[in-house]
Amino acid sequence: MSHPILRLKRSSARAAGAIVAAACLALTAACGTGADTSGKGKIVEDAGPPQDGGILHTAATADAPSLDIHKEASYMTHVAVGTVYSRLVAPKTGKDIEYGSSELEGDLAEKWSKSEDLKTWTFNLRQGVKFHDKPPVNGREFTSADVKCTVDRIKSLPGHQLGLVANVSKLETPDPYTVVFTLASANTAFDQTMANPFMSILPCEGTRGEFNLAEDAIGTGPFVLKSWKRDQERVMEKNPDYFIEGLPHLDGIQTTVLPDAQAQIAALRSGKLDMISSLSTEKRQVEQLLNQIDGLQLRTEKGITQTRVFMNAAEGPFSKLGVRLAVAKAIDKEGMIKALRSGGTLTGPITPTLFGAMPQDEVDELLKYDPEEAKELLAEAGYPDGFSAELVATDGYGETILREAQWIQEDLGKIGIKLTIDQQDYATYVSSTWPETKYDIMYGLQTPMLTADEYLTSEYTSTGTRNWSKVNDPELDKMVAAQRVITDDTEREKALQDIERYIMENVSTPLPLYAYDTQTLYSGKVHDYYPHPDYSSRELQNMWMEQE
Amino acid sequence: MSIAISGTARAARRPKTRSGLVRFTTEQPLGAIALFLITLFVVVAVLAPWIAPYDPLAQDRVNLLTPPGVGGHPAGTDELGRDVLSRSLYGARTSLLIAVATLALGGAIGLVIGVVSGYFGGTWVDSVLQRIMDALMAIPSIVLLLFVAALLGPSVRNTVIALSLLVIPSINRVARGEMLRIREEPYVEAARSVGCSTPRILLRYGLPNLMAPLFVMGSLLFAVILIAESALSFLGIGTPPPTPSWGRMLSEGRSQLEIAPWMTVVPGLILSVSVLAFNLLGDAMRDFLDPKQRR
Q1: pLDDT tens by residue, A416-466
Q2: Which residues does chain B have within 8 Å of residue A425's beta carbon, measured at their own beta carbons?
Q3: To the nearest whole angstrom, how far is the Cα of A280 from the nearest Cα of chain B?
Q4: pLDDT tens-digit profile of A29-38?
Q5: Contact assignment for B59 to A407 by CB distance below 8 Å
Q6: What is the rounded distance in angstroms from the CA atom of residue B239 to the CA atom of residue B56?
Q7: Is 0.80 surpassed by the pTM of this model?
Q8: B89 and B74 in contact (C-beta within 8 Å)?
């Protein structure tokens, strides 16, 4: 595989560095800010007009199990091929837009409108959009037929994403550039649904099975998938016919799969990578890196991945609500964040960055560390002397999770719940222990979801697709169903927060602890990187790299 | 591994007299140092609860990742605030427990198979047993270990089972070789001619005479087990957390190598010295017990 632009050889890069250093000596005033340690890691804003060219070298901690963006629930798939596809609408990103903002912009749709009763949504598509020039699609024009093929396919597949389009009763394509969705029940935020990365629009050739969607990806997005070597690398090239004039700026993206965080850091240090992301690296190590690598930029974002204590609500000692509430009080979450994460925010069932999340001070109050009260709750639940249990955890999420499990072991030990850790491999954990509820208490992560409703419906209702803690609360089921049809935003937000409060006080499993901050480190020549938590990586179309 | 021991091996079986120890020290000074270190290792392992400054599991949350000497922690703390020195000392306990249990289990099985196989050398019993052993030896040891450990899941018991599979064929080889020789010795023929039963011959005349090379083998295997246990724990399929184990400590310290090198250096150093000591002792014992090396 040859790239149009070759990477600078190390020696010439060093020479360039020497020239810069010499220039700095001559202009000490101009480069003086570099000496200020507090300014280390600062993101350079307004770096000038974007320059075209360059290949972004980045790394992934794990590869996508398959490239099928509809069938595969793993967010690794979305990260892998998110830039290959477009959606009808997409979240807006940019310098002046808040991280995780739900503001939308047209992607394949030029404009869209909803009917009075919120049941009919019309999307007017861009004209002249071309698919990537790869067989069997060969760069043909994108039309409304492809939207229909895609939605039909999503409806025919089992799984999580089905819930997103279950409400669509009819999809009409009056002409090649218009799509009309008719919904079974009113939905005030159907455009948000269509902005979900699961709603990536496929060509009909793909949905008809003319090429293998699990191994190839052909879309209309800013980058073309040139090659994929499983568990090794993914190579993306600029889409020359991209429908947004002048984008993308990069010539390509090369992603290397490097599961070991230390290996990624070493590669960043040696200049083999321009960017490493989604790490939850030790604060001190990041500081050290910032001191060692000139111009390195650090972007810290409020996390969206929740850490969770999963407790079996159907059987075992944790089936008693009092015990679960005691666990919630007994864990020193803030201490945990300070000791083991680079930062984090306590969270209710709905991640703080999403619409419907509880006010932060209320979350902090509900999750307050109070071992004394925990002991009382435990005694009231009938365990004044505590009990013993096994805490399941996996090493599949990295060492930090195991450390946190040991932290929880210590904290719960203090109120009398004696835990032994059952460390499982990721495959057993994720395919058997978790979905089949083969645990009393378990600690791990929850893949981020994109709407409040998704969290509540899938995890906390008795019929939820991810109700793997065996929650069975008819009252809660009713509340969750009721919020879905509220059209007024203020009213709906209140309803969502009431549900969360109800969960924290009356269900308490899966018990959310905090969403940890993620850090992205990237070289000084990378600019205009404004990520969005939806992990589709669409923001990379606006990113550019300084050319020497 | 070929260990040449001939007829006089019997002498080594006698309880070590003071003069024996002195002779060993003068003839094998390196071995004596190794023996001293191993004694120290065993003493530390046994007495860990009394000599360790802290509980190895206690989390001192005021002192997270403190360097050696700060906050009353002589070798610093890890990211959960646990005392690195105490964990390293207790790690010796874990390693010793696993190594002894493995040698006892694997050694016993290997010995029985080897002795029986050797006594019936050349018959179908020997062939069947040895082909099974060959099959076991044919699989690369690290692959075998990973397979068994991953299959059974991480626990001290399962680690012992996995490591035993490594020990059985080695012990079996030595025991069988020795037994093949011993069964031709006049005293075995004599025993047979006065009508001793096979079990009695094996236990009374076989076993005592083949122990010497097994001691040497055991010492060398001890080092192998220490390393293998650490490797498994390092990979996360050995001793489960929070049990202190050198391998796990190394793996936990790896991500902090730049910020908190003491987390890796302390257990790493102790592990290296222990393994070296067992290897040196094994070599020294082999030379000491080998009459051909004597003047």
Answers
A1: 999 999 888 777 887 788 888 999 999 998 877 777 888 898 889 988 888
A2: 150, 153, 237
A3: 12
A4: 333 333 334 4
A5: yes
A6: 15
A7: no
A8: no
